[in-house]
């Protein structure tokens, strides 16, 4: 159970750290090869771009989990605590529904590249690996938004007991 809580708390953070560190390393090697060895790598920029795409879509769930989403905190803080909780709950419900709505389209997009066998130009990576980042990112975002719904609902119900 401790392992699951640790994964739940840090999954996106660890994966994004690895992706961003890998991207920095790959681009550092490219800079070294280009300016010191006078020979540029053909695959480095493409691989860094793919890592950036993955970190971008994983960051959606991370931002939702950490409460770093676009909202107007100043306006919300003008309302009583119970109304604030309802507004936050409704926002999380809308986000959950929105990301669940996007999931089938992301699946179709990734599956289309599986069917046509498309690969990237320089690395030869199957494009479904890159396009699958949308599906994983939206699924994780829907999960994190649903966690927010559950958390806000519990908070609202506890405040109702007081």
Poorly predicted parts? none
| Rounded mean pLDDT score | 91
**DSSP strand content:** under 5%
CA radius of gyration is: 20 Å
| Strand elements, count | 0
Whole-number count of domains: 1
Structural category: mainly alpha
The major sheet is characterized as:
none
Number of helices: 5
User: What is the subunit arrangement here?
Assistant: single chain
Order of helices and strands: HHHHH
Q: What form results from the Cα inertia axes?
A: elongated
Percentage of helical residues?
A: over 70%
What is the rounded distance between the termini?
31 Å
Please describe what this structure looks like:
It contains 5 helices and no strands. With 162 residues, the protein is mostly helical. Helix content is 81%, strand content 0%. It starts with a helix and ends with a helix.
